[in-house]
Amino acid sequence: MRIRSMMLGAAMALALDAKADEGMWLPSQLPSIAKNLKDAGFGGDPKDLADLTKAPLNAVVRIGGGTGSFVSSDGLVVTNHHVAFGVIQYNTRPDRDLINEGFVAPDRAGELPANPDYRLRVTVGFDKVTDRILADARGKTGRAYYDAVDAASKALVAECEKEPGIRCSVANMFYGRDFYLVRQLELRDIRLVYAPPRAIGNYGDEIDNFVWPRHAGDFTILRAYVGKDGKPADFSPDNVPYHPPSHLKLATEGVAEGDFVMLAGYPGTTYRHRTAAEFADQIEWRLPTSVAVLKGLQDVIEAQGKADKEAGIRYASQLQSLKNNIKRFSGELEGLKRSDAVAVRREDEAAMLAWLATQSDAAALKPSIDQAMALIAQGKDVRDRDLLVGLLTSQTQLMRGALSIDRLSVERLKADAERESGYQKRDEELIQSQLKQIQRRYDPRVEKALVTSVLTRYQQLPDAQRLPEVDKVFGRTPAELTRALDGIYGATTFAGEAERTRLFAAAPADVAKSNDALLVAARMLRPALLRIEEEKKAREGDLLRLRPAYMQALIAYREKQGKAVYPDANSTLRVSYGKVTPLAARDAVSYAPLTTVQGIVEKNTGAFPFDAPVPLIDAIHKGDFAGYTDAKTGAMPVDFLSNLDTTGGNSGSPVLNARGELVGLNFDSNWEAVSASWMYDPRYKRAIHVDMRYMRWLMDKVYPSHALLRELGVPAK
Question: Where is 576: in which H helix or E strand?
Fold first, then answer.
């Protein structure tokens, strides 16, 4: 049997026997698994979920680095406290501690603008464009293949973005097998409306992170604004609330064990269809190395924050992200080892290849599969170097800004279609916003210490991985590094917002002439960064060309097994469904699926991270829970557990009941399932959600905002 013939009529390779607790489904796939949805308890018509531009899915938005949803006709958006934490931090000052005290806007005029680079996107189109993307790539290899795909993608995006206010992208499905054009309305004026104190939104901090039972009120409410003409606009006091095409209805009843739940959101990245060699690399090198490097950066920020409160505030958001990633990577490593993931994946891959050998398409597919595997193996040669150099941009503020200005000055000399992605005219407004927000997220002592932490590790690499330009700028020894950083950061004027604004607007020739110490360093580093980029593009081009053969074989093999086949997550809108489910974590250790305020009191020590606010403890002791309690137990709920299939990016995703009403907000996974981005295990995979009854009770009885509750359609009790 030919593999292609097995896949006819399966536009996105639907599962033959999809499990209710597994699958990050594209909305267009849902009608094909309608029976599974109905059997699981969904009360609506699955066909209504197929169109992501219609209710209820058009109420689900991508915001910050996670997901949110519209919950009122006047643009209210609910997401996680940690998804909006950068907004809270941006508006926090030593004399206005929104992080620890929380925030309740007194009225709409008192709502606070988010950091300038904070964005909300509503998906308004999702169309298959595979033939157009690959038309000029076929027959090419390496960098030429990459460039052909890149050029076609840019052309489609440019055509798509002729409509004002629309942001477009091309999504790669099944690793180069299919491509989709995603159209999104981008809103730029987002404001903070309601945020609980840190000790509610992040109760338990890293001790409780990725842990069940959980007792966090991880939610924040924002509002989207547009210009008076109804079009996306930068922040202005004259802007008006955005009126979304639909919004979710908050449920007035809660959930119980066994209830159907469904989640929609923008999961970041999963790797379930990767090769066995990539599984091994993740476990044996990438995860332990990343944990060690990021832990060094965490230590730097914590030490600097203790010595300087204002520096601690400036880096609070970055620190929170580091701690989250460190614990996630640690849990992923432990989970993959627990599941013996490398051995399982190798055995599975070997079985797939043995099956492929019996198929008539084997001769056509196997050479490409072998080439892809060889190319993946070659990536090990410079992986340490690439990880550390990447951190110089991702974990710095001022240096990242200087590198952006330098690169932008080079790209501006090219025709827009030939510019590097991220530096086209469409990207300049975001670059400018990022340069502006540096002012509230930068401290020279902290940044020098962060760069020192990264480059001290870099200086220990073998010569084969060293870059002459990096050595020239920063030296080859710790002493030379210290002198170089003191000289660069002591002399630069790039820390001033006016200077950054001037350089952003300057002609490329003027930027090239700048003798600012940090700009000179960025200019000297540019050739090395471009070489790394060239190497990656050539490799990625060949993998884009070769991986589809692997995926074609894997999809056909999975369908033969009757297993679910859905694209790995890639920040496009997905839907998962399941039930409120308890967890049997290990021998003699089982967990109920709902927590209550009693657990807050039991954990409370009065000291960070279990320092529940006094108003919360007083309200719990008062016991005024009428209208919010669990129908069966009479207890006041906080969080609940389900077997929904989630990963990073699903933070803030709305959790809906069988009637499509909002009952929870996804915000975490359990420790036993952090590895689910690579390997799904139904025994352990659980998602953790804030119960909307807890949010409503807090807004009613503890940190009141009755006007907001009325706008949400759930008036105070």
Answer: strand 574-579
User: Which residues have a catalytic role annotated?
Assistant: 82, 218, 651
Out of 249-253, 376-380, 421-425, 430-434, least confident range:
376-380
At 552, the amino acid letter reads Q
> CA–CA distance from 74 to each of 66, 131, 186, 711 (Å)?
21, 40, 16, 8
Residue 405 contacts residue 511 (beta carbons within 8 Å):
yes
For the residues of 358-420, what is the DSSP string, one character each? TSTTHHHHHHHHHHHHHHHHHGGGGHHHHHHHHHHHHT-SHHHHHHHHHHHHHHTTS-GGGSP
**DSSP-based three-state secondary structure for 508:** helix
The total of other beta-carbon atoms located within 10 Å of residue 428's CB is 14
Q: Which residues contact 316 (CB under 8 A, 6 or more apart)?
A: 85, 89, 92, 99, 305
Annotate 599-630 with DSSP letters as a single string. Answer: HHHHH--SBTTB---HHHHHHHHHT--TTTS-
The two tokens of residue 56 are 């209820």
Question: Which of 374-409 are b and which e, b meaning 16 or more Cβ less than 10 Å from the residue's Cβ?
Answer: ebbeebeebebbebbbebbeebbbbbbbbbbbbbbb
15 band by pLDDT with thresholds 50, 70 and 90: very low
Question: In sequence order, what DSSP letters do the residues of 260-302 get, joined into one string?
Answer: EEEEEE---B--TT--HHHHHHIIIIIHHHHHHHHHHHHHHHH
Of 284, 288, 386, 273, nearest to 329 by C-alpha is 288
Q: Which two tokens stand for residue 555?
A: 């999809």
